[in-house]
């Protein structure tokens, strides 16, 4: 018997494991460009998830190898096989499903698989498929039969350990074909039997793959860190099934199901792994009879080992001879692999024990061991094991396997939690008792650095959280907007206790909700556990800034008193922004009013929570008061009455810094520490931040960027260029750029921005105004005099440029006009003057801010002409209304979309979508535009809401969609208000958060506020990890 050589369960899988199998789930038709570690691993769980952002860590189940061997179609079959196949195909269904949220080992996904009918009566029918299809958490799906009839399916059972589950459907929904079950015959699975695998292979409607059973005694395959079966043998055959065939029946020539397709190798070997049907048959019989499916456990994992290995572990010759005499065809015995700490077997069984007898009966097979344990729940069993050649007899209590398998979760503060499962505890060999509460969706307040799942929260606010019930009681008492200490461990590293400071969000995620699995209905029932405790009133606090005593220019480094740390947490991904949390530094421009200027790469939009940290000591809340549409900065305000610290307003220079000028660089490095260096300005040039093609999001355009001669400039995302007397000459800002198509990482640029360009806007903000700037909705690029001459600029204009701006011999050409720009400038125009002012620098364009129209002199197609060009108000460019519908985040096309597209197709733009949602399942992707609902045009959000609210729940409707690249298509979708209600967010200054929420139910506005659902959101591509927690 071959021992499985994959990595041991308590260790993380290595990237070069050569025989880890692949679960046969189909890759979605529009997979996310998620960053997938070890994507070429030969053993993976074989489906790509619909989780969009995972903090840089994803489960191996999220990878897939499509080249898992060529598909072997059944060659010219005999008439007998053809008759069998014709009978079987009517009983096989294609399952399209969503696992709607992360739970236990599963992430939120949308995928396809296979199942087959195993029971039909007048009112109820059951489909058998895999447990990794049914999943351990909320499930939503439908089955398509061979004649393309469709019906909804609901889970009635998923085994806690073994890879099978049962789905229920209403047989009366199938009107055009007769339904009949496939017989389950586990006794007919024998070595050498010719079989066919009939299923939804590689996403095809039906594939029939041939093979021959080669082994019956293979240990259960290990799929890495996700769900894996154990404590059962598997059947091995060569059939080369691939994605989508999970749950296919393995049939013999008589048309009996002898096994269930579960997984296979993905390294090119044509090897598949089938689950024996002994336990599925028992579960089906119990459910038919209305009995509970009892499952017993002693919290010990066993593996089959050959007799030669058992002898090395201490099996003596006497017992071996007895076993061989009793079971002459057996070649091995069961050996303890993992004994869970503090479980029934702890201190009684040890790893390496060879199981000889159970209740006085010789036993070598998993099936018989399952029989004994399942019939002894609540009782005891007596085991005789051989340990180093000695007989050891132990009596163990048999626990309920269902009791240590979570069937509920609680969502609070944007994250989801449940008790640690036996599946996870077994994988990492940790105790189930008081291990901490398991965070299955680490988002919102609990967005821990490094991974989106696998965390065990040990304590909150210095109160232990050993289990879910205790955790709920602790969270009930914590006021909204509190900052508390949280300690946590990761299952992969139980040695390290991490500690962070957490801002508790009970305003965006208002309710603490519990979801409980209901096997009668097949859906999870939601209930509210508690209302949030109102936030406590903040109190003023004292602090002092650090001193940099060794610095040569004390007045310059005193600028540290003008810096505050800004942490922005975004509850919902809007405008294509890739992160949910960003941390950086802002410059205080008015200490008396608490005004701070900060990069828009830190604060991208105003639906966010902003924390302002002064002197690394005082934390206060902030709010957005102004966002510049073009120049990459926002102004944030905090309450200065809460701050008793010597904060200093920065003195901003009104004279532009020059190329070659000496200056002092003061910035904050990756460790958020201040650094300083004497340097010089190397260049001041007009730059273009590259657009992100796959995910349009805010970027600065039309800017003069300053670069300096110090390596610190590339290490620091926040800072200033400052003179020796402390006058700020330029801000040093982070600019969000394009997404790298190869790595999926977002590129950030660190550049200087001269302060004179700030002054007109800043002065108005200081005076209490809210500037409503007007802009030319276009993007420019510089052209040199040689190009200008060729493009038709006269010698008189060239001489004027050289005379009036001896430092910048350049003009501006219109590179791109925004969508909807009419009657103004055209692409390729060279701008000479605006309102009679020669335009040679970006700062000269500031004349547009306060004029409804501008008089422009341009050169167009070799001809000089005068034009009146309109400006547009920037108040129309920021997102002020958002609808979350069927898991898709919809709003008006934001400014970046208009910059990159030639025509805006509608005012309904898909900005992001949630994993496991109808939007993901039916292919409604970020950057799509929605034009109509059920053939009724919906040009704006108002008309869209009106039409979709007419659609009943769980009903199909049609969407007319236009892609970003002008390709029209029609999407058919089904509503699911239970898991994905329609929620509207409307900007409202009267609400503390700045946004009010409305939830729709059955097409009508529901009383009470909507929720930001916990879960990962795909904004159209992969992204790196968010910045860390506040601590």
TrEMBL record:
Q: Where is the composition biased (Polar residues)?
A: 1-19, 42-62
Q: Does the keyword Repeat apply?
A: yes
- InterPro entries assigned to the protein according to its UniProt record, in alphabetical order: PDZ-like_dom, PDZ_6, PDZ_sf, Peptidase_S1_PA, Peptidase_S1C
Which keywords does this chain's UniProt record carry?
Answer: Apoptosis, Hydrolase, Protease, Repeat
For the PDZ domain, which residue ranges apply? Answer: 337-387
Residue ranges of the region described as Disordered = 1-64, 1011-1031
One GO BP annotation is: apoptotic process
Q: What is this protein called?
A: Pro-apoptotic serine protease NMA111
Organism in which the protein naturally occurs: Friedmanniomyces simplex
């Amino acid at each position: 018997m071959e021992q499985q050589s994959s990595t041991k369960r308590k260790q993380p899988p290595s990237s070069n494991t050569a025989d880890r199998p692949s679960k046969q789930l189909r890759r979605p038709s529009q997979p996310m460009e998620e960053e997938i570690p070890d994507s070429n691993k030969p053993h993976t769980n074989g489906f790509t998830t619909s989780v969009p952002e995972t903090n840089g860590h994803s489960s191996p189940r999220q990878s897939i190898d499509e080249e898992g061997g060529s598909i072997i179609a059944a060659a010219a079959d005999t008439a007998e096989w053809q008759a069998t196949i014709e009978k079987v195909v009517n009983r096989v269904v294609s399952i399209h499903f969503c696992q709607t949220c992360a739970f236990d080992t599963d992430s939120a996904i949308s995928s396809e698989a296979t199942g087959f009918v195993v029971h039909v009566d007048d009112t109820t029918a059951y489909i058998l498929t895999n447990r990794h299809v049914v999943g351990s958490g909320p499930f939503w799906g439908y089955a398509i039969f061979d004649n393309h009839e469709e019906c909804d399916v609901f889970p009635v059972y998923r085994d806690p350990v073994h890879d099978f589950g049962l789905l229920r459907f209403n047989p009366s929904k199938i009107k055009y074909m007769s339904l009949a079950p496939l017989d389950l015959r586990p006794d007919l699975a024998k070595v050498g039997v010719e079989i066919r695998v009939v299923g939804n292979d590689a996403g095809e409607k039906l594939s029939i793959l041939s093979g021959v059973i080669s082994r019956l005694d293979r240990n259960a395959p290990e799929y890495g860190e996700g769900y894996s079966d154990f404590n059962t043998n598997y059947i091995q055959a060569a059939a080369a099934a691939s994605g989508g065939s999970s749950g296919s029946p393995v049939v013999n020539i008589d048309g009996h199901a002898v096994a269930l397709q579960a997984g296979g190798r993905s390294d090119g070997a044509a090897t598949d792994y089938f689950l024996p049907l002994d336990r599925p048959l028992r579960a089906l019989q119990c459910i038919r009879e209305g009995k509970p499916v009892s499952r017993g456990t002693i919290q010990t994992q066993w593996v089959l080992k050959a007799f030669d290995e058992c002898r090395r572990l201490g099996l003596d010759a006497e017992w071996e001879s007895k076993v061989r005499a009793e079971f002459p065809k057996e070649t091995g015995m069961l050996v303890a692999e993992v004994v869970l700490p503090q479980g029934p077997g702890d201190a009684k069984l040890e790893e390496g024990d060879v199981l000889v007898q159970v209740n006085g009966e010789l036993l070598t097979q998993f099936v018989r061991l399952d029989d004994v344990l399942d019939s002894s729940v609540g009782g005891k069993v007596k085991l005789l094991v051989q340990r180093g050649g000695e007989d050891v007899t132990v009596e163990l209590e048999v626990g309920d396997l269902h009791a240590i398998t979570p069937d509920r979760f609680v969502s609070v503060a944007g994250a989801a939690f449940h008790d640690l499962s036996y599946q996870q505890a077994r994988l990492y060999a940790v105790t189930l008792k008081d291990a901490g509460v398991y965070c299955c969706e680490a988002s919102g307040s609990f967005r821990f650095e490094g991974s989106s799942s696998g965390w065990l929260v040990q304590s909150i606010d210095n109160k232990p959280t050993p289990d879910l019930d205790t955790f709920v009681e602790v969270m009930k008492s914590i006021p909204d907007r509190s900052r508390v200490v949280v300690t946590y461990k990761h299952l992969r590293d139980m040695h390290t206790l991490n500690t962070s400071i957490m801002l508790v969000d009970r305003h965006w995620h208002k309710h603490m909700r519990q979801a409980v699995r209901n096997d009668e209905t097949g859906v999870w029932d939601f209930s509210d556990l508690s209302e949030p405790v109102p936030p406590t009133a903040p109190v003023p606090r004292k602090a002092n800034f650090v001193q940099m005593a060794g610095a040569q220019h004390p007045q310059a480094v005193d600028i540290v008193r003008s810096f505050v740390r800004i942490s922005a947490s975004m509850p919902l991904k809007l405008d294509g922004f890739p992160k949910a949390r960003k941390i950086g530094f802002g410059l205080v421009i008015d200490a008396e009013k608490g005004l701070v200027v900060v990069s828009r790469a830190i604060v991208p939009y105003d639906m966010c929570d902003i924390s302002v940290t002064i002197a690394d000591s005082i934390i206060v809340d902030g709010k957005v008061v102004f966002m510049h549409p073009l120049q990459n900065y926002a102004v944030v305000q905090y309450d200065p009455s809460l701050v008793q610290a010597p904060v200093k307003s920065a003195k901003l220079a009104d004279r532009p810094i020059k190329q070659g000028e000496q200056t002092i660089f003061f910035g904050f490095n990756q460790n958020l520490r201040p650094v300083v260096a004497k340097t010089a300005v190397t260049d001041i040039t007009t730059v273009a931040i590259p657009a992100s093609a796959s995910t349009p999001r805010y970027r600065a355009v039309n800017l003069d960027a300053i670069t300096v001669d110090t390596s610190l400039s590339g290490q620091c995302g926040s800072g200033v260029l400052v003179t020796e007397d402390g006058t700020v000459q330029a801000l040093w800002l982070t600019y969000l750029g394009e997404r790298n198509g190869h790595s999926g990482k977002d590129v950030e640029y660190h550049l200087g921005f001269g302060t004179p360009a700030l002054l007109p806007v800043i002065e108005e903000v200081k005076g209490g105004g809210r500037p409503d700037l007007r802009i030319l909705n276009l993007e420019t690029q510089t052209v040199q005099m040689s190009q200008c001459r060729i493009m038709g600029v006269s010698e008189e204009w060239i001489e004027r440029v050289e005379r009036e701006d001896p430092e910048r011999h350049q003009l501006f050409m219109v590179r791109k006009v925004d969508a909807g720009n009419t009657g103004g400038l055209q692409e390729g125009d060279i701008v000479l003057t605006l309102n009679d002012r020669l335009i040679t620098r970006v700062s000269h364009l500031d004349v547009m801010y306060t004029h409804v129209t501008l008089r422009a002199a341009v050169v167009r197609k070799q001809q000089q002409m005068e034009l009146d060009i309109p400006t547009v108000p920037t108040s129309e460019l920021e997102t002020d209304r958002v609808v979350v519908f069927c898991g898709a985040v919809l709003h008006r096309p934001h400014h970046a979309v208009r910059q990159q597209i030639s025509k805006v197709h509608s005012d309904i733009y898909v900005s992001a979508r949630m994993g496991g949602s109808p939007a993901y399942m039916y292919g409604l992707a970020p950057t799509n535009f929605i034009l109509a609902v059920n053939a009724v045009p919906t040009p704006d959000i108002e008309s869209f809401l009106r039409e979709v609210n007419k659609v009943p729940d769980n009903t199909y409707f049609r969407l007319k969609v236009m892609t970003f690249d002008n390709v029209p298509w029609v999407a058919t979708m089904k509503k699911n208000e239970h898991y994905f209600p329609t929620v509207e967010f409307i900007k409202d200054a009267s609400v503390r958060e700045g946004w009010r929420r409305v939830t729709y139910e059955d097409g009508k506005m529901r009383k009470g506020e909507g929720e930001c659902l916990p879960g990962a959101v795909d904004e159209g591509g992969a992204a790196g990890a968010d910045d860390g927690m506040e601590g």
